[in-house]
Write a structure and sequence with these properties.
Number of domains of chain A: 1
CATH architecture of chain B: Up-down Bundle
Shape of chain B: globular
Distance between the termini of chain B: 57 Å
Largest sheet of chain B: none
Structural class of chain A: mainly alpha
Largest sheet of chain A: none
Structural class of chain B: mainly alpha
CATH superfamily of chain B: Cytochrome c oxidase, subunit III, four-helix bundle
Strand content of chain A: under 5%
Strand content of chain B: under 5%
Helix content of chain A: over 70%
Radius of gyration of chain B: 18 Å
Number of helices of chain B: 6
Oligomer: heterodimer
Number of strands of chain A: 0
Chain lengths: ~90, ~180
C-alpha cells in the first residue's frame, strides 16, 4: 500500500506539517530563532513541491516540475531574507 | 500536422494553471509584504503572533492536506471507472473543507472575543486579509468539489481537484509565514 505515490505524498505532508509546527512550538534560544525560521521555510518549500508533484501531477511533467520548484525556491529564499533582516539589523 | 508544445505536458487544462500561477503571485505578494512590514516592528509582530493558536493551525493543515489527497484519489478512481467511489471521495474531501472552515471560524471567534480586530495591529491586518482571502477560496473550493461530484466527467474532476490543490498549496506557504515564523 505504501508503494502508492499519493499515499506516500500524503504521509510526507502530514509529517512535514507536524514537524514544522513542532519546530515552531519548541522554545529556541533567542540566537537560534533564525535557524528555526530557516528550517520552517525549507519545510514549507518541500511541502509545496510535494503538492505540485503528486497532487497536481507535475511529477509526470519534469520541465514544469523543475520550473515550479526553482521559482518556489527563489520565493522562499526571498521570504527567508525578509524574515532574517531584523535578526541581523 | 499538429505540433506539440511544452504546454501539452501540463496535466489538465492550461487555464487552471494560469489561475494557479495568478493566485500564487497574489498570495506571494501578500506574504512578502507581511514580512517586509514585520521588519519595522518584529517584537510587535511576535507578540501579536503569540495570540494565535499554532496547534489549531497545525491541525487545520493536516485537515487540508488530507482533503487534497482525497480529491487526488477521487480523480484516479474516476479515471479507473469507479464512479460511485470517486463521488463519495469528493464529498469526503468537501466535508474536510467544511471542517477546516469550522476550525477557522472558531479561531476568528476567539480573536473577536479578545477584542482583536483587523486594525488592532498591522499583524492582524495581514492576518485577516490573507487568511480571510484564503478562507473565501476554501468556501469556493468546497462548492466546486460538490459540483464536480455531481457533474463527474473526468475533465471536470481534474479541474475541480486542481483548484482544491491550489488552495492547499497556498495554505502550506501561508501557514508557516503567518503562524510559525517567530
Amino acid at each position: 500500500m505504501l508503494s502508492d505515490p499519493l499515499l506516500r505524498a500524503w504521509l510526507w505532508l502530514i509529517g512535514l506539517s507536524l514537524g514544522s509546527t513542532a519546530v515552531s512550538l519548541w522554545h529556541w534560544p533567542p540566537k537560534m530563532t533564525a535557524l528555526a525560521g530557516t528550517v520552517i521555510l525549507t519545510l514549507a518549500w518541500l511541502k509545496a513541491r510535494i503538492i505540485l508533484s503528486r497532487y497536481l501531477g507535475l511529477a509526470a511533467a519534469p520541465f514544469w516540475q523543475r520550473g515550479f520548484g526553482i521559482s518556489l525556491a527563489v520565493f522562499c529564499a526571498l521570504l527567508l531574507g525578509l524574515y532574517l533582516i531584523p535578526a541581523f539589523a | 500536422m499538429s505540433e506539440t508544445t511544452v504546454f501539452d505536458d501540463l496535466p489538465g487544462d492550461l487555464m487552471i494553471w494560469v489561475l494557479i500561477i495568478s493566485e500564487l503571485l497574489v498570495f506571494g505578494a501578500g506574504l512578502a509584504a507581511f514580512l517586509a512590514v514585520r521588519i519595522t516592528d518584529p517584537a510587535g509582530f511576535a507578540a501579536a503572533q503569540d495570540m494565535l493558536s499554532r496547534t489549531g493551525a497545525g491541525i487545520n493543515t493536516a485537515v487540508l492536506v488530507t482533503s487534497g489527497a482525497l480529491a487526488a484519489w477521487a480523480l484516479l478512481l474516476r479515471k479507473s471507472g469507479r464512479r460511485g467511489k470517486a463521488r463519495i471521495t469528493l464529498v469526503a474531501a468537501a466535508f474536510l473543507g467544511v471542517v477546516f472552515m469550522v476550525i477557522k471560524s472558531l479561531e476568528y471567534a476567539s480573536k473577536a472575543a479578545h477584542g482583536i480586530a483587523w486594525d488592532t495591529h498591522p499583524f492582524f491586518t495581514f492576518y485577516y486579509l490573507l487568511t480571510g482571502f484564503h478562507a473565501a477560496h476554501v468556501v469556493a473550493g468546497v462548492v466546486v468539489l460538490l459540483l464536480v461530484a455531481w457533474k463527474d466527467a473526468p475533465a471536470n474532476i481534474e479541474a475541480g481537484a486542481a483548484f482544491w490543490h491550489m488552495v492547499d498549496l497556498v495554505w502550506v506557504l501561508l501557514f508557516p509565514v503567518i503562524y510559525l515564523l517567530r
